[in-house]
Amino acid sequence: MPSIEQQIELVKTLVNDIHTRVASLSPEQLARPSACADWQVHDVLSHLIGGAERQTDSMRRGRAGDSGPAPGFTPADSTTLSVNNAQRDIQRREQLGDGLLSAFDTAYASLQEQIDGLGPDDWETPCWHLRRGAISAADYLELRIQELAIHDWDMRHGLEDSPQLNADCVSTLLSATPKWLGMCFRPGEKLDSPVVYEFDLAPPYETSIIVRVQGDSFDFPAEDEAPDRWTVCGEAPAFLLFIYGRITGREAIAANEFAITGDPALLDQFEAWFRGV
Question: What is the pTM of this model?
């Protein structure tokens, strides 16, 4: 797990990289489809702007002792949130027009000011998040790296033949995996017996992530608690793109990024349980 200081620098690097790339794009390139079904490349940038603004507001209120929802908050299920967010970010992009990149710079400068204002003892400060409720400032920083790294890939997917995740983000994304899967789990009927997945990741990460799904719940058992495991061997970036819904398990198998023994339908089932947000 990278340190807080390393994560702060990673946010700066990702923001600078995105700014540099977007500044070089033509209007036609900005209007290309991204990896997000409902968004063009510039819509993804609009989403990143809104995310930074909401995080800045949440951190500011959290530091003032308010970790509850922002005024006007209305609870909604995950599907409704996703649909509403997609339309909101498209509308915001249309409103910003040529000022989109400038708004991105302003939003992340304001967020950086909030981050810089946190001392060593402030990172456990609770701050409101729309989907997860009150989370620590440290968790929010990790979540910002997730958003920037994955959506950077989404934008480049519309512009490059073989986009790659930023390698410096992989460790942070792997450490955030339990929280991510918890946020996007879609429970179903309780199973008669659990399905246990083991994602055995290749060097340099060389880690195993074990997920036991009961149908209506899931957990992360230790190896000795789940002897009957269905193993997927693969590269860490492919695993991350899989759990974030950017590639399917079958696509990863076809590209030789996953190696499995057994029925690939079990990967299809994993995708149904963990469908993203």
Answer: 0.93
